[in-house]
Amino acid sequence: MVRSLDDFEPAFASMVQGRIEAAIVTASSVTFEHRHEAARAAFQHRLPVIAAFRELVEAGMLMSYGPNFAAIYHRAASYVDKVFKGTPPGDIPVELPTKYDLVINVKTARALGITIPPTLLARADEVIE
Hints:
This protein is an alpha/beta fold. The chain contains seven helices and five strands; from the N terminus they run αβααβαβαβααβ. The model has no long low-confidence stretch (mean pLDDT 93).
């Protein structure tokens, strides 16, 4: 488990030593805050990583499939509007994200020697060159 910046390098090294061929990085404040360092450690160990958020792919991880934060923030504005208009917060239903984005970093894929199928690239919401 990664709990601080110093945990990334040993975590990825341990995965490679255990012959793990790919990893999933879940959402946490540590992985988000240190996404560039995490991506660098994964790349140094030649470990493809699927992440929870597009920002981690922008930092250099291979791909992500996760909620679109712009859409979430847009919906949050409607919650604030309802509260300001007098709706008690407890009366507003909780909503799950409705838009998810597939983001692929082909630069990382090439550097790791991974070929992304054209059909997957065509389905991506964003392809980072």
